[in-house]
């Protein structure tokens, strides 16, 4: 499993998980409610830039995150340019990128153990009703944590496949990309399940 968390002692690293979640939620809410407000968009992007700088990730790390999102930009931009103006498309793509980068900053500055602990604390008051339907705060928090970590892991698999295709001079096609990606993802899921079973998690 690829470790995304970058240990550090910045204010963002020490900030409670709930406060970080709240910040991302408010940024996403503001980006949704004030869709065409340039000042709101600039404020969110200022928060993104400040967050990466103060967290010690730096401008280089921010640009690396942006580069990883290049295909998302393409997928978001091309269809919208058919129906919307370039200005509207730019607003929409910028809003999504800003929120995604904030979420990425969250994973860079928050240890998985802290995410698990925060989820368990939030679900603890309703643990008894959950157990009546076969769930528990621990299981739900574990599922959330695995989901959060699986997304960048699968993206890294995609990058590995593309790198291998480039090294062999292959043209990227859906079939040549999806099949190995599916195999690598299933293998990763199997390894994760075996690791959890070895630790007594059922």
From TrEMBL:
Compartment annotation: Membrane
UniProt entry keywords in alphabetical sequence: Membrane, Transmembrane, Transmembrane helix
Record bears the keyword Transmembrane: yes
Its membrane topology: Multi-pass membrane protein
Protein's UniProt keywords contain Transcription: no
One Pfam family this sequence matches: CbiQ
InterPro entries, alphabetized: ABC/ECF_trnsptr_transmembrane
Residue ranges the record marks as coiled coil: none
Origin: domain of life: Bacteria
Transmembrane segment boundaries: 12-33, 39-59, 96-119
Protein name: Biotin transport system permease protein
Protein's organism: Nesterenkonia halotolerans
């Amino acid at each position: 499993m690829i470790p995304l968390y970058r240990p550090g002692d910045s204010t963002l690293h020490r900030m409670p998980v709930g406060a970080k979640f709240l910040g991302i939620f408010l940024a996403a809410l503001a980006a949704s409610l004030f869709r065409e407000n340039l000042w709101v968009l600039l404020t969110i992007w200022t928060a993104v830039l400040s967050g990466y700088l103060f967290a010690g990730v730096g401008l280089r790390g921010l640009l690396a995150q942006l580069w990883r999102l290049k295909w998302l930009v393409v997928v978001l931009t091309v269809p919208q340019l058919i129906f919307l103006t370039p200005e509207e498309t730019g607003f929409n793509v910028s809003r999504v990128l800003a929120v995604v980068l904030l979420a990425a900053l969250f994973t860079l500055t928050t240890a998985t153990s802290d995410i698990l602990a925060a989820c368990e604390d939030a679900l603890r008051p309703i643990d008894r009703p959950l157990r009546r339907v076969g769930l528990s705060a621990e299981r739900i928090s574990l599922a959330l944590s695995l989901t959060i970590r699986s997304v960048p892991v699968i993206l890294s698999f995609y990058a590995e496949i593309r790198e291998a295709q480039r090294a062999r001079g292959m043209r990227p096609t859906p079939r040549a990309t999806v099949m190995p990606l599916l195999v690598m993802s299933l293998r990763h899921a199997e390894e994760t399940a075996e690791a959890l079973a070895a630790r007594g998690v059922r």
